[in-house]
Amino acid sequence: MASTSSAGTPAQSHGFGPVKLFLNWFVLVCLTFSTFGVSKIEMPVNYHLAAAICIAIVKLSLVVLFFMHLWWGEGINRIVFLTSFLFLAVLMFFVMADVGTRFTLSNSRIPPLPKIDQTLMPSGMPPGMGQVPQGHSDAPGRTAGKAGEQ
Amino acid sequence: MQSSAARKMTPEGWLEPPPLPHHYETEENHKAALRFGMWLFLGTEVLLFAGIFVGYFVFRTYFPEAFEQAGRHLSLFWGTANTLVLLTSSFTVATAHYFAEHGKNRNAFWLLMASVVMGAMFLCIKGIEYHDKFEEFALPGKFFHFEEITAPGGPIFYVVYFFATGLHALHVIVGMSLLTWVAVRCWRKEFSPQYYAPVENAGLYWHLVDLVWIFLYPLLYLV
Prior knowledge:
The complex is a heterodimer of chains A (150) and B (223). By secondary structure, chain A is an all-alpha fold. Helix content of chain A is 49%, strand content 0%.
């Protein structure tokens, strides 16, 4: 930790100078192009997602540690920042665990209705239901006629 | 905060630092407290954006095809350009912090102004992208009339896109305001090895804006 004298002499700096900051920037730019390049590789979308997030985490670390001075600063600030990401992970984990184990866009355990078998359709249904157009006398549902009504 | 007019110029060429508030024992104490407060605030910012990122992954799980189709319709060129602009502005802000800490206020001033200009460039590019989206009705909710996205969930993608980038753009505007304010104070030579917390904290805010974009860029444009 830098000790500052009140005499006005420049403090003993606890960060990178311009040259090292520039190098950090250069690495970040390279990582940006690498994440761009990786996105062009043929692979399943989940791998793309994982690769993109991994590179983003490396970039985040470089920015946080060297641009934001977390490498040198007080430890308490590291705890604060890591805790916020821990809470983000908790939120993400439980929400995604919920979403991932649901029936698609439904919260019902009732199985879907079975397909209606037209041959078993009784006559005398409300208009339009189970009816076969005129001229299709070979349709089994039609031959039952009114007699099929129970 | 004491106005700079009441402070004298030191022989080194910067204004005397404001007097230490009485509840701090040392200057280091004071600096650490200001830094700690800023980091706490940044923690809440992370949680603010956490909601948007969780929303992104939930809707992506529900509508994977729409997210892929819509992602391909975003401009990769402008997205990448914006990433480079923000990274570079982060570098200039970090360097401005270094110069302010060493009492080189003029260097810090020009670097901060360059960062503000890059922030404006970012917003202009964002504006071009938004304009394109409005032109093709690639919009959230009921305003969505974009035939090229056929999979269900297109309107949802644009809800996520506009909310995430909109909230981020709002942060860019706030960050630019903070950097301008700090740059003006650099011009007045207010910062010195004893007192540079405003540059540091405005810089931390700007870096957070950069961090959010580091995640938004691959998730929206690349995957």
